[in-house]
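Researcher: I need the complex structure. Ligand is iron/sulfur cluster. Inputs:
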Amino acid sequence: MSDTRGTTKRISAEEIERQKQFCAEIRKMNEGRPGGPPLAYTQTYGCQQNEADSERIRGYLEQMGFGFTTDAEQARIIVINTCAIREHAEQRVFGNVGALVHGKRRHPEQIICLCGCMAQQPRVAQKIRESYRHVDLVFGPHVLWKFPEMIHTLLTRRGRMFLTPDEPGSIAEGIPVVRQDKVKAWVSIMYGCNNFCSYCIVPYVRGRERSRQPEDILSEVEQLVNEGYKDITLLGQNVNSYGRDLDEPTDFATLLEAVNAIPGDFLIRFMTSHPKDATQKLFETMARCKKVAPVLHLPFQAGNDRILRVMNRRHTREQYLEKIRALKALIPDITLTSDIIVGFPGESTEEFEDTLKVLEEVRFDALFTFIFSPRPGTPAAEMADPMPREEKLKNFNRLTALQDAISEEKHAAYIGKTVRCLMDGLSDDARYDLTARTPGNRLVRVTGERSALGQFRDVKITGANKWSLFGELI
Ligand code: SAH
Ligand code: SF4
Ligand code: F3S
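Model: Output:
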């Protein structure tokens, strides 16, 4: 399972060139239309990986001559990029996709596409085929690179298309990108996951781990920095295993060092890291590299060793805490965040309390907390799960109450300090002008001139609550 060399399909430059020719042909069809360019509507669920994929879909759509709209009713093409991580995410998608049927009745020429992680599951594709007949195209993450060809086929012949091949996965370079943001950018450094945590659907829908070549990543970051991006997040399901599958194996710390060496004033972030692969070398590299933000998102999921074992996380609580201590020794002001699952099958309230103990020892700045959601096809979905939902909810509320108190205290400690922050957005709250991020990625609502957008500036922190900080530009 760990050696995936040779199984990764690298899509050739000629293939991507061919896709761009499909874009050019569609653009020609679109140019003749009265009333200006046709519009595309995209909606993205799930993680940053999916956001990054949607930026590629929009890149292709732009090359096909589409404009963009935020009103699905106006769109000639609708693309819904979906997430399968929890049942709730799937239900929202089914609800929203179901509602599109009315628009399609009024505009039968509309093309509705469903892609992403949900689409890759045979049971979902089947349900769409049978019960959501207004959906024209279903495709999984492995074939995103041939989106133009799929659209071309739909435009030139009638019928629906389902493309969800079950393969270990592909890598394609050179797909055009339309990014949402001008200050922050995502850069995927690898795809897929080999870990098979027993609750998780990702390895089934995203395939095996495969790394992009370092030179491709470095030239993308260089270009982003030249375009003025200030905050770059390197993405992967487990960035700590980056490079192991390459013909010339390397590691994530080495990549981080090389990204750090790119000239320019910018911050480097990364996610997600798996504790079992987080190394001392990584921590030392983080401490040494000035552009690497002092923040680590290190999910531990549960504080009890028996639960960690059935989750197939392959680390113990003590090993996790040991790594956190080592990191704090090197970077005392590190910002720490984590993911936690409450109510894993068979987790007793006593075992859950071990999770609270980890919170008390580590004192995370923020947490992403979830109640276990059975994903069909994963081992955990088959495990006995006797605890009633109300009891899980009680534990969940204890967890969030404890974390809220810690976050509030940690945020209060910023008051009176001056922090160099990146102005990353204009505020939609009239009391503030800008939103900003500390180097540790805490949200700050800032008063001051809106022209500072996109700049690193000193902010005097004047207030805080459990969610964010408040301050003024100096
Ligand atoms: N690759 C990342 C996580 C990706 S999914 C990592 O390993 O850290 C993001 C988070 O969703 C996970 O960390 C986990 O906390 C949560 N999650 C995944 N599957 C889940 C499920 N079946 N039920 C509830 N939460 C889940
Ligand atoms: Fe899922 Fe585990 Fe892989 Fe993260 S490391 S994506 S939780 S299987
Ligand atoms: Fe969801 Fe797929 Fe990301 S399942 S969390 S969109 S990798």
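Model: Summary of the prediction. Residues 40 and 77 are 5 Å apart (CA to CA).
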